[in-house]
Every structure is written in C-alpha cells, then in structure tokens.
C-alpha cells in the first residue's frame, strides 16, 4: 500500500503555530512575570477577563493546572464536588482533584434537580459537605456537546440555592460560544471561576487562562507558583494566545468540517451522532482494531468514552476531511 501523509484528527491540540503566530511570539514585549508582570501576559489576561465578563484572569501553562488551581482554592480537604460523568476533572487529570486539591468527587448527570437534591438542605454535623459544582462546556467525553445559555443559567441558579461555588471547565468554551452564536461571557455568567484553553482550537502552542474575581486571581497566582507554573518571559507564549483570540470566529469552520465528516462517515454506514462542535464520536465493534485500520489508511483518531474520537481543527481543511472519508471508504 502506498504511503500517505497521515491526517491527524486525534485532537485539536495537534495544531502547529503558523507564521503569523510565530511572528507575534518573536516580536512580543516581555519581562519577568514572576518578579513583575510580563506586559504581554498582562494584556492577554485583561483581554480574556473582558471576553469572559470577569474581573481578572491568570495565564497558566495548561488547562489541567488552571482547573487544579481553581479546585484547590474552592475545596477544603474532604469536601465533595459534583461533576458530570466523564468530566475532564474526574477522568483526565490523574486524580489531582482528590490527590492535590483534597476534594471528594461525585459524578452525576448534571440537572438543576440533581444539584439541589445532592447539596444544600440541612445536614447533621456528621454529614458530608458538598461545596462545589464543576461544569464543563463544551463537554469533551460526550462529543463536544454544548450546554445552552438557559441550561447554564438554570444550573447556576440551582448551585446558588444549594450554597455551592461553581467552577466552569471551559477548555472549549470558545467552541460552545461559536456554536450558539453568543458571546463567551454569556456562558460564563454567574460562575466563580472559569478555565479556558488557548492551545486547542485557537492554535496556540501553550497556554490556558483561569479567571474569576480579582481576589481569586491574586490567590491563583500564589498557587500557580506553588505548582511550578510561574514562568519568566511568558509574553512569548501569551503573544500566541492573543493571536489565537483573534480567531475565535474561525472555529465555525472546524464545526462545519466535523459535520461534513460525520455525514461522510454516516453515509459509509458508521454509527455517528451529528456533532454540535468539532468532535465526532463513532461507535465501533472493536476500538483497538478500528484505530489500527484507520492508521493504516492514514487517518489518526483516538479512543474516547468507549468510542472513536475524531477532532477537527485549524490544521485540517475541508479537502482533508473529504480525503479522510475517501481513505476510510477504502477500508469499510
Ligand atoms: C484539554 C482539556 C483540559 C485541559 O487540558 P491540558 O492538556 O491540561 O491543557 C481541561 N478540560 C477539558 C474538557 C479539556 O478538553
């Protein structure tokens, strides 16, 4: 079989910074962000805080660190927190929510009634304390599904009734905002803290941002330093994030490519649901066998929640997606 260049749909993190981004990185104004405040990091943090409608924000090297910082500050040892089954904070952060932040995880399909039922109300002194609700929008393991503004508002109201704090894992909040055609701030309304990634669909090589009140950002800076995440001339990285933020609307192209991929796969008889954003989940009889077959024809995908995950991103074009379907047709 002839060699083909693989088309990499394992994740939207595989993008490489393009020339414009690299030029911005090379030209970034920088300073020591631990001693002072790097001017480009400051600009990025202010811009993200504005986009999310919160007071302040802090650049962090990874989304996992952003989530961990928020959970560390929200949870006391032994506090229970609620998150949906398959949530990144439960399944994809190596247990740090428990191990380092001290929280006791509880997975539950998040509805306002479930939140009210599990938290709040009177409890005796020996009762478990539930103190935090963790949201995730879009939701990765269910295939990049979007929580609407109305559902978000209802969950926040339930959390408030139950006296819970709310952290939003918004690694792909930009995708949710584009899919719903609402400003990102509408999907972060009412939360205490929110984490967003710059290194996924927006194409930056490194970086996430965790955001909330000014007091939270100041404490978050201390925890980031504790975790080894204080960087020096980080403006070089923040500059990439700023270029990424100019490209939020272009995520619509990734969503269109995901829809095209899903309908192409469906026409080949694959078991796929219509994607809401840039993630396509496909059910297959044997994941290991399917991934190997795909790789053999030059299509890279990854396992996720008992299915195969294809993620579209800015380094795959609509022609590439058509090519993916042709390559898969050859083996189906
Ligand atoms: C990618 C992702 C993160 C953060 O991942 P890092 O690789 O640590 O940057 C957090 N939550 C969700 C839902 C994600 O998809």
From TrEMBL:
Gene Ontology molecular functions: L-allo-threonine aldolase activity
Record keywords, A-Z: Lyase, Pyridoxal phosphate
Taxonomy, superkingdom: Bacteria
Cofactor(s) it depends on: pyridoxal 5'-phosphate
N6-(pyridoxal phosphate)lysine sites (modified residues): 200
Family: Belongs to the threonine aldolase family.
Record-given protein name: Low specificity L-threonine aldolase
């Amino acid at each position: 079989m002839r060699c083909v260049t693989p088309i990499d749909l394992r994740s939207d993190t595989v993008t490489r910074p393009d020339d414009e981004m690299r030029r911005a990185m090379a030209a970034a104004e920088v300073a020591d962000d631990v001693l002072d405040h790097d001017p480009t990091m400051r600009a990025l943090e202010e811009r993200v805080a504005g986009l999310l409608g919160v007071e302040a924000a802090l650049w962090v090297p990874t989304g996992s660190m952003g989530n961990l910082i928020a959970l560390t500050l929200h949870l006391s040892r032994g506090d229970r927190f609620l998150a949906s089954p398959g949530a990144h904070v439960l399944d994809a952060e190596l247990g740090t929510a428990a191990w380092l932040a001290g929280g006791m995880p509880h997975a539950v399909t998040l509805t306002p009634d479930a939140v009210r039922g599990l938290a709040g109300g009177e409890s005796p002194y020996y009762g478990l304390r539930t103190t935090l609700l963790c949201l995730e929008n879009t939701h990765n393991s269910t295939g990049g599904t979007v929580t609407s503004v109305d559902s978000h508002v209802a969950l926040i109201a339930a959390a408030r009734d139950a006296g819970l704090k709310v952290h939003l894992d918004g690694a792909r909040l930009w995708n949710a905002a584009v899919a719903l055609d609402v400003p990102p701030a509408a999907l972060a309304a009412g939360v205490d803290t929110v984490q967003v990634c710059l290194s996924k669909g927006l194409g930056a090589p490194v970086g996430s941002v965790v955001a909330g009140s000014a007091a939270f950002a100041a404490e978050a800076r201390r925890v980031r330093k504790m975790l080894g995440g204080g960087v020096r001339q980080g403006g070089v990285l923040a500059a990439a994030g700023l270029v990424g933020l100019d490209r939020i609307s272009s995520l619509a192209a990734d969503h269109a490519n995901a829809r095209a991929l899903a309908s192409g796969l469906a026409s080949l008889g694959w078991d796929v649901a219509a994607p809401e954003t840039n993630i396509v989940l496909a059910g297959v009889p044997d994941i290991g066998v399917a991934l190997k077959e795909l790789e053999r024809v030059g299509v890279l995908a990854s396992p996720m929640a008992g299915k195969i995950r294809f993620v579209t991103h800015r380094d795959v074009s609509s022609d590439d997606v058509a090519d993916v379907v042709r390559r898969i047709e050859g083996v189906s």
